[in-house]
Amino acid sequence: MDGEEEKLPKDVLRHLEPSEQVLFRIRKKMSLEKPKWLIVTDSRIIYLDEKVFGRYDLKAIPYQKLERVTVKLGIMSSEFIIEGEENITLKLGWMNKEEARKAINAIKDALNSIAIEPVSIGVNKGITSETWILKKPKEFITRTMPAHQNTTGREKDNDPMEQLKKLKELYDMGIINQEEYEGKRKKLLEKI
């Protein structure tokens, strides 16, 4: 972010959902151009390229459609590539190294807060460059429940999402092995 924390432009605010929380934002102004924004929310990644005369380009990739985030950090510049389903690709070459690191970590944290399976991240550090690759799990299941489902008590115990969470906890504690975990997980996924 350029010095002090910037308020979001009205063009982004207009497109945010009422309950959507902004987790991280970067504003970059290059020479005489209008600013460019990368906004990480709790449900998606938003890119805004402001233009003159009130025009703008806005692209958003919800986490369910996100496939990969790649950051290539060089000596002088960085390239931030966000790939989603349906051949959606955002390429941002205007972030510095530190901004790019903060952005990919914000995306990783946002995904990990809603995904049952952890997000994988790989770092390849060379002499003059560094590449970070974040991949969403193949079976991306979120921890959030649709608003119209209100489960309590016994219904909650029969909820496949709750059972998946408990199953993962048993596996993490070593009570069940990987084979048992995978078998039961697949059965629960069929119920969703």
Give the neighbour order of strands across the main sheet. 7-6-5-9-8
Radius of gyration: 19 Å
Q: In terms of structural class, how would the helical and strand content be classed?
A: alpha+beta
How do the SSEs run, as a string of H and E? HEEEEEEEHEEHHH
How would you describe the overall organization of this protein?
The structure is a single chain. This protein is α+β, with helices and mostly antiparallel strands and 192 residues long. The chain has 2 domains: 10-135, PH-domain like (Roll); 153-191, no CATH class. Helix content is 29%, strand content 31%. The chain has helices at 10-13, 97-114, 153-158, 160-172, 178-191, and strands at residues 22-28, 36-41, 44-50, 56-62, 66-73, 78-84, 88-92, 120-125, 130-135. The strands form 2 sheets. It has a 5-stranded antiparallel sheet, covered by helices on one side. Strands 1-2-3-4 form a 4-stranded antiparallel sheet, with helices on one face. Strand 3 (44-50) and strand 4 form a beta hairpin. Helix 4 (160-172) runs antiparallel to helix 5 (178-191). The chain is globular and about 60 Å long. Residues 1-5 and 143-154 have low confidence and may be disordered.
Keywords, separated by commas or semicolons:
192 residues, alpha+beta, PH-domain like, 2 domains, 5-stranded antiparallel beta sheet, 5 helices, globular, disordered N terminus
